[in-house]
Amino acid sequence: LKASSQPPYISTILLSHQHHLLLHFLHYTNQISPHLLLPHHNIPLPLISRFRSTSQPVAFSASSMEIDAENLSATELRLGLPGTSSSEDRPKKPSPTVGTKRALEDTTSEASGTGSAAGEDQDTTTPAKAQVVGWPPVRAYRKNTFQAAAAKKAEQPGGLYVKVSMDGAPYLRKVDLRMYKGYRELREALNALFTKSLAAAENGGDHQYAIAYEDKDGDLMLVGDVPWDMFISSCKKLRIMKGSEAR
Amino acid sequence: MGRGGSRAAPAAAAPPWHALPDEVWEHAFSFLPAASDRGAAAGACRSWLRAERRSRRRLSVANCYAASPQDAVERFPAVRAAEVKGKPHFADFGLVPHAWGAAAAPWVAAAADGWPLLEELSFKRMVVTDECLEMIAASFRNFQVLRLVSCEGFSTAGLAAIAAGCRNLRELDLQENEIEDCSIHWLSLFPESFTSLVTLNFSCLEGDVNINVLERLVTRCRNLKTLKLNNSIPLDKLASLLRKAPQIVELGTGKFSADYHPDLFAKLEAAFAGCKSLRRLSGAWDSVPDYLPAFYCVCEGLTSLNLSYATIRGPELIKFISRCKNLQLLWVMDLIEDHGLAAVASSCNKLQELRVFPSDPFDPAGQVSLTERGLVDVSASCPMLESVLYFCRRMTNEALITIAKNRPNFTCFRLCIIEPHTPDYITHQPLDAGFSAIVESCKGLTRFSVSGLLTDRVFKSIGAHADRLEMLSIAFAGNSDLGLHYILSGCKSLKKLEIRDCPFGDKPLLANAAKLETMRSLWMSSCSLTLGACRQLARKMPRLSVEVMNDSERACPLDSLTDESPVDKLYVYRTIAGPRSDTPSCVQIV
Predict the structure, then answer these.
(1) Per-residue pLDDT tens listing for chain B (590 residues)
(2) For chain B, what is the domain count?
(3) Looking at the partner chain, which of B94, B286, B508 has a beta carbon nearest the beta carbon of A134?
């Protein structure tokens, strides 16, 4: 812009006009992409290369390919504000944000995102882990094995330790609910843990004990009503109650 | 040469060499093990062509659509061992439509007709049905070796047919197939008189197997050298199986996990101590490091260790691997981490092949500390290392340059940086310099996979330097048509090229159309191709089959689409069989 020969406000208008055109172009291509006119295909192509493939005359020889390269970078449409760095320096960091079969739509949104709305790409954190089809290149067979192993791991996150309190006992114990296959084993284990306290209590004459547990909602429930698996997933704390209190 | 024959004139010299009977040439050609050498010999003259093709025993068809099964059987009537490969490599990652093709049935039918003496059949990435297996069992009276790799379409019923029908079966090798479980006890169908098994690999089978039957089978097959079990075999049964087959050379343990019991440990230890010939070990080991010491006695002799399905980590794993001083092949998960690989580097100096697989490929954060450091250490200390497959989350140009300098003897280098477009994490530059260094230094490189942030520059290097490169895999790389042009106009030995998600368009494809006929196949998906270019290519090169695949739900007759229509997936391969007739609706031949 030759500012010297023109009043300053015109250069501002011209600059903003270019900017406006650019935004307009972005708006145009994003909204009315030619491919959408085609009946069957709705995966948009990366904007830059698409533009290149239709704008250049068809030439088959290798030498013209070389020449094209030089001209290409000069004519290449950049989706950035005037003055932004060339594509090689621009740190590309697209994450496969969009879901299956949409790898290219992802590159499009990335290309347009690094333009005027440069901050946007970094601001939008990757939504829930959607993945590119077939990437990383892990065989389907191996992927299934991993998923199965991961699912299993999710089901069994190691031990499930809960506190066990017994009324009158000086201190609490902890048991791993996953160590037991059912209620009987649990009862036997608790018996073993609290033999001393039980023996002491027995002298007081009270033989009845009920095992209760605190569930996710904080309610005190009697152990034994629900299936074992349901029990261990909802039990937060165990409490051995003296017979008199249990009633 | 003895006397006799009508040419024995007293003063004449020996018969001119080109008049020697075919049997002589056939015998000479039997010393050429490589199919390419035999092919070259066959091209010399008619009599050599005749002699060679009539005596060819092993045939490898790398693309099942490159020739028709009838052609193959007619041309090579004496084949005893055939290997046929089907779907493109990217089918492993779900990129090829499910019903694409690669049916094994026409091959089995043609073989049943023309090769009654067939002994070995191997299918890779093909659809093999139960009917195929039944036909195999019924058609070849001396059938000995069945190898199915990454196939699908069959069930345990087909296996039952093989077990019952193949009296002389030596090898049943099922690698990573999808096998439907029909709850048929196929193992019990091996007759009691059957003792010839040398290899039994059913590691990919999901269902249960009758352990008693397996034990009896293992006991009576005294020549059994390879046994790879599936996940249904518990540890205590493994111990008893090993006691019955102490001569075993290759063992796949299947699932190796149980709560620790000292007597089970003792049993296993004793069983392994008896396996003096054990050289190759694999298995899906779950995190029970307590049992690893049971293997210590075999570590010294191991040449191959596949822990790529093993989720053990930590010091026990490292202790175990460090004892395997004679390892030539190691496949592990990235749970080994950099310090584990450092231990491998210092202990396993005979290592030739290393593969490190991602334990959690879809986790963007990456909990595991496996970086470029591990690969640098191994390449520095293992002088015989020539094949690498490495999944990691970060890399630098400097590391790659160091690796290239340390190990110019790489023949296969596949690096997968999990996040696409990842640059050098220190300099934030593209990884062009690093990958270029590899290709410039490793003159014998035949297989190469690149990843990370890459511009056209790396392809310029590859095109110029990778003279022996036969297979190249590219994903999320390059920035213009030039990238593809460099590859197709260079890479003298290129056979297979597979590309996904790169900004490559029509021009380099059309400019290098002739190159495609020198290659076995080209795959391009999610690039910038148009239908018009594919049409031009098909018109220009009649000996290429140009297959176009779009979104499977939208089968649309090609004729109605314009030249500008984008092409989602392209698969081009040379063929003498003409366009195939078994395409599903989502695949169209241009």
Answers:
(1) 444 445 445 555 666 766 778 888 888 888 887 888 888 888 888 888 888 888 899 999 999 999 999 999 999 999 999 999 999 999 999 999 989 999 999 999 999 999 999 999 999 999 999 999 999 999 999 999 999 999 999 999 999 999 999 999 999 999 999 999 988 889 999 999 999 999 999 999 988 899 999 999 999 999 999 999 998 898 889 999 999 999 999 999 988 877 788 888 999 999 999 999 999 999 888 756 788 889 899 999 999 999 998 888 778 889 999 999 999 999 999 989 999 999 999 999 999 999 999 988 877 766 788 999 999 999 999 999 999 999 999 999 999 999 999 999 999 999 999 999 999 999 999 999 999 999 999 999 999 999 999 999 999 999 999 999 999 999 999 999 999 999 999 999 999 999 999 999 999 999 999 999 999 999 999 999 999 999 999 999 999 999 999 765 565 677 788 889 899 999 999 999 999 999 988 888 88
(2) 2
(3) B94
Last residue of a domain, one of B473, B488, B504: B504
Q: What is the CATH number of the domain that holds B464?
A: 3.80.10.10
Distance of alpha carbon B369 from alpha carbon B221, whole angstroms: 45
Contact criterion met (CB < 8 Å) for A93 and B421:
yes
Determine the distance from the C-alpha atom of residue B419 to the mean position of all C-alpha atoms in its chain, rounded to a whole number: 24
A72 contact residues in B (CB cutoff 8 A):
480
Q: Element (H or E) spanning A154, and its range?
A: helix A140-155
CA distance B63 to B577: 11
Domain of B458 in residue numbering reads as 394-504
A59: chain B residues, CB-CB within 8 Å: 507
Angle B114-B116-B117 from CA coordinates, rounded to 5°: 125
Pairwise CA distance, residues B289 & B211, whole Å: 25
Rounded to whole angstroms, the Cα distance separating B446 from B218 reads: 40
B14 SS3 class: coil
Fold annotation for A158-199+207-242: Ubiquitin-like (UB roll) (3.10.20)
Contact A61 B511 (CB under 8 A): yes
Structure tokens at B470: 């036969």
CB pairs under 8 A between A and B: 147
| Closest residue, chain A, to B511 (C-alpha) | A60
**Residues of chain A positioned with their CB less than 8 A from the CB of B287:** none
* φ, ψ dihedrals at B68, nearest 5°: -85, 155
Of A41, A48, A150, the CB nearest to B550: A41
* Gap between the Cα atoms of B17 and B15, Å rounded: 6
Nearest to B457, CA basis, from B519, B386, B397: B397
Whether residue B398 is found in the same domain as residue B483: yes
Q: What is the ipTM of this complex?
A: 0.83
Tokens (6 digits) for B115: 């090769």
B496 and B90 Cβ atoms separated by less than 8 Å: no
